[in-house]
Amino acid sequence: MLAELTQVAESVGIEVRSRTLRHAPSLGGLCRMPGRTLVLLSSRATPHERCTVLAQALAELGHAAHPGLGTETRALVERHGRPAPPNSAPEHTAPKKGPGLAGIGERGRRRL
């Protein structure tokens, strides 16, 4: 996925560089300079973190629908690099019958 994101970024004219970012606790990001656009990636970042930074940059520049992106990679760019929401969201269940948090009895009175 990282190679795919890098290839797409370079195909649209974005320069991708990997550097050791010593003075800032950053994973990298988009840098716009006169005449060129650059994405800096921390060489200490994990591949997942690098994918996130590249996906955020591509989304910010409006390249989410680039034809060179695969299905999963396109979805990542459309989410601006954020991870996918969990598929199984816990459903709301009815409260259990029984004592409550503070030891409240069945009639709603505190037990002594």
Q: What would you say this structure looks like, in words?
A:
The protein has 112 residues and is an alpha+beta fold. Helix content is 29%, strand content 17%. It has a three-stranded mixed beta sheet with strand order 1-3-2. β2 and β3 form a beta hairpin. α1 (2-11) packs parallel to α2 (47-60) and α2 crosses α3 (71-78). It starts with a helix and ends in a 34-residue tail after the last helix. The relative contact order is 0.17.
Q: What is the number of helices?
A: 3
What is the molecular shape?
elongated
Q: Compute the number of strand runs.
A: 3
What is the beta-strand fraction?
15-25%
Q: What structural class is derived from the secondary structure elements?
A: alpha+beta
* Helix/strand order: HEEEHH
Overall mean pLDDT score?
Answer: 81
